[in-house]
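Thread: Newbie trying to understand structure tokens

Hi all, I'm a second-year student working on a class project, and my supervisor (Dr. K.) asked me to get a predicted structure for one chain before our next meeting. I've only ever worked with sequences, so writing a 3D structure as a token string is new to me. If someone could post the tokens and maybe explain what I'm looking at, I'd be very grateful. Here's the chain:
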Amino acid sequence: MSSHPQPRATSKQIRALIHFDNYLGNYNNYENIVKGLTYLMDQIQDLGGYVYWWTREGQTNFDQNDDRIPGKNKILVYETGSALVALCEDIYI
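---
Reply by user tm_fold:
Sure, no problem. This is what the structure looks like when written as tokens:
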């Protein structure tokens, strides 16, 4: 079994909700946006950035081990970039 926090998928949903609310000029999705942004902030790793996998039981085809911290996964640029875009999105007030 393996699991991952999916910051990329979360950021896409947050951005869509922000754009939708901005387009309609309302705050109907405010609570979900705040929950998603809070989740992304909570998932930032100690060395900065985001990982794709929390655990990879039986998964040996990905070279994602972080040599700096034994047993930890590497920070991935694509996951980190996706999350940062959502965290920097403008919400019109």
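A couple of things are worth pointing out once you decode it. Strands lie at 2-3, 55-56. The radius of gyration is 15 Å. Feel free to ask follow-ups in this thread.
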